[in-house]
Amino acid sequence: MSSQSIHTRTPPVQTRLPWWAVALPALAFAALLALVAAPGTAGHTAAEPVFQLLGSIARRLL
After folding, report:
1. Neighbour tally for 23: CB within 10 Å
2. 28-58 confidence digits (pLDDT tens)
3. DSSP annotation of 25
4. What CA–CA distance (Å, rounded) separates 20 from 61?
5. Distance of alpha carbon 61 from alpha carbon 54, whole angstroms
């Protein structure tokens, strides 16, 4: 009797990322960058342009 090797096929691995796997870290990075860039201006008016920018990015992604 000869021993034969049995070859099993493995299913292909999914390599695509969901949209939120890229968008959420990018939004978090932008928010942290805005905090680091202007640490002295913590008022509501200073954060308003950042939220407008993040809103426009979110609308483009969706």
Report:
1. 15
2. 998 888 888 776 655 556 667 777 887 888 8
3. H
4. 9
5. 11
What does the alpha-carbon distance between residue 30 and residue 54 come to, in Å, rounded to a whole number?
8
Under 8 Å between Cβ of 39 and 20: no
Tokens of 8: 């099993």
**Among all chains, which residue has been given the structure tokens 């021993």?**
3
Q: Give residue 4's pLDDT.
A: 61
What length does the chain have? 62
* pTM of model > 0.70: no
Phi/psi region, residue 5 (left: phi>0; alpha: psi -120 to 50; beta: rest), is beta
- Asked if residues 46 and 38 have their Cβ atoms less than 8 Å apart, the reply is yes
CB atoms within 10 A of CB 32: 10
